[in-house]
Amino acid sequence: MAVATTTWGILYCPKKGSGNPRKRWEKIKEVLDARKVQYDFVQSETSDSVERLISMLINNGYKNIIIVGGDSALNDAVNCLMKEEKVVRDEIALGVIPNGIMNDFARFWDYKEDDIEQTVDWLLKRRVRKIDIGCIRYTNKNGERCHRYFLNCVNIGMTADIMNLRRQTRRLFGSRTLSFISSVFVMLFHRLEYKMRLKINTDVIDRKVMTVCVGNGPGYGQTPNAVPYNGMLDVSVVYHPEMVQLIEGLWLLVTGRFLNHRSVHPFRTREVEVEEAKRAMVGIDGRLMKTPVGPFRVHVEQEEINFLIPD
């Protein structure tokens, strides 16, 4: 049975540790029904099921796929879409109703978790923009060449570890503020350095580095000027500051002035070559990935995904 082109295929990804997920969906459903939105709904049980369900929606002909979830769910959706031929992708628009542990990419577009009505009204206007995606290409422990796409950022080093901790503390405390404070507290006593060798444009960085953020989007405050529609990646390389400078850097991060810190070295490029990053964890869109083996490359692919943006 053919699906109407205006019908939404909605994937609901319940937020872990958020109490009653059914109550949240009922609130969203109430808004959808009040606006007479035509939609079909599926729910993911685990993060592993997201790509399978997105594939099902694509194969059943849905042209508007709405993710009710956070950065990780969007990441899974994008990676699933990128497995399709371009002619198929070009007919599909991806949208988001923020509902995740971390909703950084949604907040970039001014979608707010507590304003479902405004979000649905914007999605109904179906204003589509072609957006860029980042891609990390690496070799895994089995010697296989792999790749993974991202919307927001890739973190290399300590921040990847902290982002993973923040996800865990968010589930524990149920609050972005408390999870951030607790993560920062651990960060003060968990200052690590990683020997890295990076090639960014004509620059070669060969020294100990605390953390690197490669942003196609705002990068959780670390690449605040990055936008997913200019064909470029913003890169923040953070050297190891003293304790007083570290506290200052955290304050600048919270207040949106991260790039002003003396230990932060910003770049703008289309590609980053990571020739060495010993023992450094790697995170993609806030989710920890298995550490690549040997050198890896991060680059941008321009105007690959149709994304539903606000009016």
Detailed description of the structure:
30% of the residues lie in helices and 33% in strands. It is of the alpha+beta class and 311 residues long. Strands 1, 2, 3, 4, 5, 6, 8, 9, 13 and 16 form a ten-stranded mixed β-sheet that branches. The protein has a six-stranded antiparallel β-sheet with strand order 12-11-10-7-14-15, covered by helices on one side. Helix 1 links the parallel strand 1 (8-12) and strand 2 (39-43). Helix 7 packs across helix 8. The longest helix has 16 residues, at 158-173. The radius of gyration is 19 Å and the shape is elongated. The model has no long low-confidence stretch (mean pLDDT 85).
List the helices and strands and how they pair.
Elements: E1 8-12, H1 21-34, E2 39-43, H2 50-59, E3 64-69, H3 71-81, H4 86-89, E4 93-98, H5 104-108, H6 116-124, E5 128-139, E6 145-150, E7 153-157, H7 158-173, H8 176-188, E8 194-200, E9 203-209, E10 211-215, E11 233-238, H9 243-254, E12 264-269, E13 271-277, E14 282-284, E15 287-289, E16 296-308
Helix pairs in contact: 2-3, 7-8
